[in-house]
Amino acid sequence: MTDPFSIIAGVVGIATVAIRSSKALIELVDDIKGGPEEIKAVSRDVHAFYSIIIALNATLKDDSIRDVVSGDVAVMEMIRLLQDPLSNCKKILGELMVKIQAHLQPASDSKRRRTAFISVKWSLLTKTTVRDLLLRLEAT
Questions:
Q1: Among 109, 106, 130, which residue's Cα sits nearest to residue 36?
Q2: Which of 21, 40, 101, 133 could lock 93 by a disulfide, CB 3.0 to 4.6 Å apart?
Q3: Quick one: which of 86, 89, 90, 112 has its CA closest to 30?
């Protein structure tokens, strides 16, 4: 069996990258004005994911919790099994970021760094792609 601390460190590492990715996507979508419902759905889902992953990361970094869970084989297996879903979420967040960024431009009336959504370019294909990515994110 793999060392419990290596398993936890691996999950914490992946979670840290997923936190950065989700935070960047949150900042992007929360700064969009005039976006379609799919963008609002992305914001809701990524905020929820971010809250969960922050809590998981903080929990696994806590030495007293790490000591307790490292002695429980079943819990360690559950933590180990988080690696692939977290990696998948990180990948999906990146794909969402690329898809959404392709449809943004700086807002002309902005005093803040807000972006305007280019709805003309928001094709059915892109809507479907974003919905599919959201479903994949929910499934992981």
A1: 130
A2: 21
A3: 112
